[in-house]
Structure prediction request, 223 residues.
Amino acid sequence: GQQVMQIPQYQHVQEGEDFTTYCNSSTTLSNIQWYKQRPGGHPVFLIQLVKSGEVKKQKRLTFQFGEAKKNSSLHITATQTTDVGTYFCAGFADYKLSFGAGTTVTVRA
Amino acid sequence: NAGVTQTPKFQVLKTGQSMTLQCAQDMNHEYMSWYRQDPGMGLRLIHYSVGAGITDQGEVPNGYNVSRSTTEDFPLRLLSAAPSQTSVYFCASNSNRARSGELFFGEGSRLTVL
Prediction:
């Protein structure tokens, strides 16, 4: 079945630094979504990527969908304490949405 | 606009007890679903529904029942609780029956089974 792998599982970042989290699917995806979950909160939709090679930006966040539509990345620049939380990717294929295990981000001030 | 509302937020059960987690949405979404979240395992789909009267199983349906008598409500029933069902449960809805697009999540229900 469809599997979505996400790395790293944990990311400890110094405030002001950049980091990237990666998402890889075992199958070709129709689209990929990204969600953010603050500690103790619920997942909140960030963005959806549909096209091969698509790149979208939201302020300091840059999302990319791979050319083969089997991988994606989220890059955060100049990390702030408000970026703390777990970032999930979710790949959509064959009417199924499969979530990765998430990257939990902590920030050192 | 309340969005997706889950109750209760916290629940402690003894092994073998039954209970129902309630989920309601006021966005007229056709698609509703239940996920469980366990450390290191992301969100796993339990059951879903693409409209009133229609339900189907997800990845981890064993031990859970659902029904969808109205568009708004999608309760999740634990028939005989087991410690393995200790988890955080999220209800989510989507305006797209094909499930492509943004999922709106409730605030979650934290269940502990002793």
Notes: Chain A touches chain B through 23 residues (CB under 8 Å).
